[in-house]
């Protein structure tokens, strides 16, 4: 992917539907009685895998034009055993949400993942489900795909995940729809609440009391009309570009601005960013807004604590903004999160330094000394969508041309990224 330095970005764009919300709309629509119509659905590989899994359990799902989907739901207890093993592909979200519903079914099932993901240990998700009474077996002490799930009687539990385990909240709450008494998750920090909001929209009884979220056995969910807002995790790249490229003015239409996902907006405003939320409204319990961004002189900040879960996916592109800010930006408390432990921070820093940035890894995060001019060069996207798109944004303000290699993942994650960027 070749990126040239730009002296202005202007225009209006609309982005694909939020993938996290799309996944839940497919699942809850399949588990609901009646018809669910979804518009703006993300047609990502992950969502298509979720659709395939429910089709194999005899849910009628029609993919229509213009990112619309019609689901003939079978109800919480109406799924049928798949004649073949379910495959969640590369999606961690798909397999986690599916496990939450499969443990409550009256038939045995089996599920696996793409070869590249199947070896991952699933114990963090499986342990609380087993505490609820779920019977799950697999390779590697029962925690590695393929996983086999047997019918069982579920009972409620109270589970307290660490701040690094926020992803297990939804499977527990979904399993709680089938349990014989109340199931609660007491969070260390507030995490994404798309499951709670959408389940209640479908008719569930999810209660939220501060950091405690509870579900209980539900008679049925009922089909709804769902509109998926634009994905703020994708909007983050265009927001950042609009801030750091001079003479820019960008409007992004109909973006989901759920408070559990808008940490990046809070950080940028603290750095002096000119960002406005216009036309605010609520759609199927989710907050939605147009976002207008104007190029802004940014000042360094410290990002830490409870902010981290609200912007964990956007850290690579926030690092690009920090390169253009006055002063040293410090990002703390990443230790224990995948972005740190997997070496992604190390990769990101290596590429920024190639472009002339002053960035370095710390014990629990990273630091970026802003204000140094970036220079175009050949960079590596590591076939990681967040790093690839972040390096492209850096290329917009780097002197000359920037070549980002190993970006094939964008064909799956967001194939229109470069064309939308070029349209501004």
Automatic annotation (TrEMBL):
Reactions catalysed: 3-phosphoshikimate + phosphoenolpyruvate = 5-O-(1-carboxyvinyl)-3-phosphoshikimate + phosphate
Top-level taxon of the source organism: Bacteria
Keyword Cytoplasm carried by entry: yes
Biological processes annotated in GO: amino acid biosynthetic process; aromatic amino acid family biosynthetic process; chorismate biosynthetic process
Compartmental location: Cytoplasm
Keyword Signal: no
UniProt GO cellular component terms: cytoplasm
Annotated signal sequence range: none
Pathway per the UniProt entry: Metabolic intermediate biosynthesis; chorismate biosynthesis; chorismate from D-erythrose 4-phosphate and phosphoenolpyruvate: step 6/7
Binding annotation for 3-phosphoshikimate: 19-20, 24, 166, 313, 340
Cited InterPro entries: Enolpyruvate_Tfrase_dom (IPR001986), Enolpyruvate_Tfrase_sf (IPR036968), EPSP_synthase (IPR006264), RNA3'P_cycl/enolpyr_Trfase_a/b (IPR013792)
Domain Enolpyruvate transferase residues, every copy: 4-421
Binding annotation for phosphoenolpyruvate: 19, 92, 344
UniProt keyword terms in alphabetical order: Amino-acid biosynthesis, Aromatic amino acid biosynthesis, Cytoplasm, Transferase
One GO MF term attached to the UniProt entry: 3-phosphoshikimate 1-carboxyvinyltransferase activity
Principal cellular location given in the protein's record: cytoplasm
PANTHER family, alphabetized: AROM/DEHYDROQUINATE SYNTHASE (PTHR21090), PENTAFUNCTIONAL AROM POLYPEPTIDE (PTHR21090:SF5)
Its biological purpose: Catalyzes the transfer of the enolpyruvyl moiety of phosphoenolpyruvate (PEP) to the 5-hydroxyl of shikimate-3-phosphate (S3P) to produce enolpyruvyl shikimate-3-phosphate and inorganic phosphate.
Quaternary state and interactors: Monomer.
UniProt protein name: 3-phosphoshikimate 1-carboxyvinyltransferase
Organism, scientific name: Anaerobacterium chartisolvens
Gene: aroA
């Amino acid at each position: 992917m070749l990126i040239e330095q730009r002296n202005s970005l202007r225009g209006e764009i609309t982005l694909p539907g939020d993938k996290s919300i799309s996944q839940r709309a497919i699942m809850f629509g399949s588990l609901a009685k009646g018809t669910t119509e979804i518009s703006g659905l993300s047609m990502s590989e992950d969502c298509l895998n979720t659709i395939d899994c429910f089709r194999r359990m005899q849910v009628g799902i029609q993919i229509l034009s213009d990112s619309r989907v019609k689901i003939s739901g079978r109800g919480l207890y109406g799924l049928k055993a798949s004649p073949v093993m379910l495959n969640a592909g590369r999606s961690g979200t798909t397999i986690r949400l599916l496990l939450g519903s499969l443990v409550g079914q009256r038939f045995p099932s089996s599920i696996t993942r793409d070869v590249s993901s199947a070896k991952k240990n699933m114990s963090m998700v499986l342990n609380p489900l087993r505490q609820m009474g779920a019977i799950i077996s697999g390779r590697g002490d029962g925690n590695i795909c393929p996983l086999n799930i047997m019918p069982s009687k579920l009972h409620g539990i109270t589970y307290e995940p660490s701040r690094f385990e926020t992803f297990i909240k939804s499977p527990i709450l979904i399993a709680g729809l089938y349990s014989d008494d109340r199931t609660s998750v007491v969070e260390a920090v507030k995490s994404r609440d798309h499951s709670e909001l959408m389940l209640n929209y479908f008719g569930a009884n999810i209660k939220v009391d501060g950091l405690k979220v509870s579900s209980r056995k539900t008679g049925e969910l009922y089909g709804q009309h769902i509109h998926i807002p634009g994905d703020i995790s994708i909007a983050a790249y265009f927001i950042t570009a609009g801030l750091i490229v001079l003479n820019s003015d960008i409007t992004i239409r109909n973006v989901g601005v759920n408070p559990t996902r808008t940490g990046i907006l809070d950080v940028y405003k603290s750095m002096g960013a000119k960002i406005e939320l216009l036309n605010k409204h609520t759609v199927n319990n989710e907050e939605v807004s147009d976002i207008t961004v104007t190029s802004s002189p940014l000042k360094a900040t410290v990002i830490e604590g409870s902010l981290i879960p609200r912007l964990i996916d956007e850290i690579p592109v926030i690092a690009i903004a920090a390169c253009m800010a006055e002063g040293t930006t410090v990002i703390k408390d990443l230790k224990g999160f995948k972005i740190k432990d997997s070496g992604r921070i190390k990769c990101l820093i290596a590429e920024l330094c190639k472009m002339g940035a002053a960035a370095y890894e710390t014990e629990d995060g990273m630091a970026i000394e802003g204000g140094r001019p970036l220079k175009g060069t050949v960079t590596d996207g590591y076939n990681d969508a967040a790093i690839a798109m972040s390096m492209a944004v850096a290329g917009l303000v780097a002197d000359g041309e920037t070549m980002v290699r190993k970006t094939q993942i964008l064909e799956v994650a967001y194939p229109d990224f470069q064309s939308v960027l070029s349209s501004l």
